[in-house]
Amino acid sequence: MPSTVICRFDYSPEREELVVEFVTGRRYLYSGVPAKATEAMLSAFAKGVYFNRNIRDRYDCVELV
User: Could you report the per-residue pLDDT of 41-51, keeping only the tens digit for each?
Assistant: First the structure.
């Protein structure tokens, strides 16, 4: 199901970095995210819910400008 909050996301397994772009256009880089968490988000029915419960506020992040 498409997310109403997350526009797209991209993951670098070598660096364990997840870039999330929201429908608002804001982009954030999350560091130290294990591949397992990203795979679970990819297969989650509600990606925004999974993100809020399992990634947001759990990993260091910076806004990309």
Answer: 999 999 999 99
